[in-house]
Amino acid sequence: MARTHSSYTASPTRTRSPRRSPTRRPSKDGSEYEMDLDALGLNSTFESTELQASYEPPVDRVDTSEIEGPEDFTMNMTYWMTADLPLAQIKSRKEAKGRVEAERMDAMRDGDAMQNTTEEGSQVIVESDTRTHNIQTSNSASPTRCANGTTDERNYSTPASERSMENDEKVRSFLSNLPDTDMEGAITGTPLHIPKQSFLQIPRSSPPKARSLQPTVEDYDTPRKPTQETVIHHTSAIVDTHAHDTLHDQIAELQSRLGQQELLSKTRITELETILAYTRSELEGARTENYKQKERTASLERGIEQQKAAAEIATSSAEARWKAKEEALDAKMHEYGEEMRLQTLAKLQNQREDYERQMEGLKESKRLVEDEVDPKSRALEQARNELAEVQRLNGKLLNDARQKLPEEQNNNADEATKEHDRLKQQLSSVQARADDLQARLATAMEEARAMRQSAERSGEARNALESKARVRSNRISELETNLQAAHFELECAQADIAAKQQLFKTNLDLNSRLRTLQSELNLARTAATTNDQQDARSGEVENRIASLQDQLQTSRADALEKDQELLKRIRSEERLEQSISTAQGRIEGLDATITTLRQQLAEAHRESAKARTNSERLKHELEDVNDRLHDSRMEADRRVKDVELKLSNLKELKAEAERSLRELQSQHDDHIEGHEAMLADVRDKAEDAVKKASTLVDRERSEKRRLIKELKEAKETAEKSHTQVEDDTASDDKSSDDSVASTTSAGAKEKEAERQSLRYTVRKQTSEMKVLSQEIVTLRKENKKSKTTINSFSDLEANIAQLKNELNHLRAQNADLQSSLEDQEAVNAAMDEKLATVLSKLMKERAKTVVGKRDGQWQASVGQVQSEKELLGKVLLRQWGREEVGIADEKHGEQQGYQYKYVKRERA
Question: 809 is in which domain, residue-wise?
């Protein structure tokens, strides 16, 4: 099982029970686990070398992957460290330690006498019987342990030569830590059997009061329960007193020494081989690095030449590109400056036009408000007149009803019912008219409130527009300063580029002159070699050559000077390039600022579009400015005091008028409510009176019919009795006389009873008429009260007329003030005209839209109300017709009829 390094470290403060280890194969009986410090695999690379031809797995190595135990060893370390052990286990461990120490001391005393060793090649042969072999396997101090208790059952999949070079760093660290002495007892490897004088750390007895153990590898492989303490079993040394056993022990000791010497030689050979391999590999690496360095230098030289050629090409192309960019930037800057100027001019023009439009719109809205107030006031007067007419008609109808009521009672019941229905219809029409007038009055009041709210909103919008206009003007000034700075930086960059171009031209001229001189020198040399045979010209040629050499030297000196100048110019060009790069950065920054400025201009345009709607604030500002100019210019004149007095008086009058108007409106509302209550009472009483009259009429009709029937019956009986009397005249006179007297007396009694009943009914009717007359008196009193309220309404109308006159007077005074302000407004005429045109256009459009929407809404609402009224009238007439005439067969095209046709004439 492979060992894993868990991140759960031991802590002395943690105390918990260990976890259960995974299941594993049970080990053979009699195998005890022992651990040596060299069993960690440190010397596993020195067990075999390349010189050995045979492949034999080592028998003395224990890999960490072969140690069986739980995966969570480190997790249970705290438990192993702090768990208290029973006394029996502590005593057994102390006894085991004592036996090991005694055995070691006996073995050391016996080992001094034994010096005979048997050596064959690289192996030691030990002959022993089965008993001694078992003793050796059980009592040896070997650090190895397999799962089955032996060391000969391992199978390795890799040869020793490959395993010897696996852990190079371990080898080097081991070589650096080797001891300098040649002690025979020094532990440099892992022998088959550890000698008795080895320096291993054998477990020693712990103090009696410390009953907890330190974590060891033995605790890693304890197949115990999670709650059971770990018991470490050490091999107890069996001390054999027999000579045969001591002899075998001495032979084993000698064999271990021989194996140790053999391992020392092998480890030394392995060390030398590893050192040689490392040196060879380092030598080969140094050679390859040298070759690579040479190739790198050659490639670098080639790259430098290519870079020089590319740099020249790049400089030429860069200059061309810079020229093109400069020209393009110049053109862009000129275009942008012109565009900015045009945009600012257009923006100012648009703002002025918007302001003029708003001014005109405000004037028009003012006129419209005045035009709306006048028809509303006229409509209010008309409504009041109509209300007075309705009240007058109501009183007249009540008087007519009172006058006609007794006559109709005497005439017939049909006319009474008709009159009752007519009165109901008139009363409902009057009530509908009153409701309509009241609704119109309420709408007029709501419209007045809405106009006041709209005026307040327009003032707030003007204030917001003023602040935005100030912010925009500040932003425009900032943009202009940024544009001027950008122009200045661009001119500096252009001057730097022009200087660099001039230096480059001078460099080119010097290079061309140097090349011409070199070509002339070459021609002179060729001419001197061809004309050696001509003696006459040789002197001239030599002189010419000398002169050419002098010229060459002078040209070289000039070239050196020019090279120095070129170096200086190159440095200056580099500086210029740096300045150009900075200029390009600035240009890019300017481009970015230009883009941001364009975005800001777009935002400014959008804000200006929004500002058109908020231009009313500018109007207030202009009015305030005009007022200030007026105050500053008219302070010296005497008109100022008069104007201020007039304004104060006007304000007071206006406040008083508003107060009186509010009071009148409240009184009017109270009167309307009282009148409505009175009308409701009158309607209720009239309806009660009509109902009572109708019931009385019905009763009288029924009594009249009954009386007529009784009279007819009485007449018939009288006639019958008369005929009987005449027929029976021939009969007995006395009996006839007696019967006639009795019959006449009975008829007289019946007639007297009928008369008394009629008198009682008449008395009843008179009492009811008295009650009705009293109700009529009360109705007249209420009518008088309504007349008084109407007179109070007339007084209110007079007050309203007076207030209108005062308003007209105030308007006249305002006109006078406006005429006085016109003299001062002449100074700002040009600006005001432009702003007025802008505002007029805007407000015309807005007024058109607002008035159109409002008229459309008003027409729609009026049409809807009218259609609803017509529909309700038709439904009402149809229902009345059904109740009065009967239900018509509308499926066959018959129209519903009704009795009161004159209702339609009144509507027409």
Answer: 641-723+741-824
